[in-house]
From TrEMBL:
InterPro entries registered for this protein in UniProt: 6-blade_b-propeller_TolB-like, Cueball_EGF_LRP_Nidogen, LDL_receptor-like_sf, LDLR_class-A_CS, LDLR_classB_rpt, LDrepeatLR_classA_rpt
A GO BP entry: endocytosis
Record-linked Pfam families: FXa_inhibition, Ldl_recept_a
Name of the protein this chain belongs to: EGF-like domain-containing protein
Membrane-topology annotation of the record: Single-pass membrane protein
Gene3D superfamilies given in the database record: Low-density Lipoprotein Receptor, TolB, C-terminal domain
Compartment(s) of residence: Membrane
Top-rank taxon: Eukaryota
Length: 236
């Protein structure tokens, strides 16, 4: 699955809430923002806008919270961007990784070469757990807990999908395909794109229609997804 940014966007950090079917990312383009969408990139929502560049992102799956950092502070909000508050607001230099595990929020400061943690609920009990940690770029927290009842888990045969199973916010699922494959009418099976002739252009999935090459970049959309008018040279 490829999620494309809008004009002027520069996506950076990515975090997932697979149980809710949400994808979060930061945008460091024209505006510094935290955004959310479904796992297929649809139904985008701006969670927060910041004056300073957003440097890291982490999801608290147990309590449905999203944490993000800037140069001066670490903030948290619910999955819609509401009830925002600041967790840490001092002695931060260059936060480049965030992770949530249990009752604690962990972060990595590249300039100070530290890994610190704080109580994620109160912002108290701050402590450095590792020092002189150089050359790290990110931080990940891993548990051994597995959710056997996940809608895309083995008990549901991965949602009946042949390739990608995407959980949706209300407990349902949707099948998708890796780039280069198309989803059949059964909405579960993926297969290769049909081969169009040398004088034809292949439209994007899911239609994968074949149109004459002369229709490519002619100023009129002939593919259902308008892919025949994407990436065309600009006239000057």
């Amino acid at each position: 699955v490829v999620v494309r940014g809008a004009n002027g966007e520069k996506p950076r950090n990515i975090a997932l809430h697979p149980d809710k079917g949400f994808l979060f990312w930061t945008d460091v383009g024209v505006k510094s923002r935290v955004l959310r969408s479904r796992l297929d990139g649809q139904k985008r929502l701006v969670i927060a806008e910041e004056k300073d560049q957003v440097t890291a992102l982490a999801v608290d799956k147990d309590h449905d919270l999203i944490f993000w950092s800037t140069k001066q502070r670490i903030n948290v909000a619910d999955l819609t961007g509401k009830n925002m508050r600041t967790v840490v607001s001092s002695q931060l230099s260059q936060v480049s990784g965030l992770a949530v595990l249990g009752d604690y929020l962990y972060w990595m400061d590249k300039d100070q070469q530290l890994i610190e943690r704080v109580d994620k609920n109160t912002g108290l009990s701050r402590e450095a757990i590792m020092s002189k940690v150089a050359h790290l770029t990110d931080l990940v927290a891993i548990t051994n807990i597995k959710n056997a009842n996940h809608p895309c888990g083995p008990l549901t045969n991965h949602g009946g999908c042949t390739h990608l199973c995407l959980p949706l916010p209300h407990g349902s699922t949707e099948c998708s395909c890796p780039q280069g494959l198309i989803l059949h009418e059964d909405r579960a099976t993926c297969s290769a794109l049909p081969a169009c002739g040398v004088d034809h252009f292949t439209c994007g999935a899911p239609s994968a229609d074949c149109i004459p090459s002369a229709w490519r970049c002619d100023g009129q959309s002939d593919c259902p997804d308008s892919s025949d008018e994407m990436g065309c040279p600009e006239c000057t």
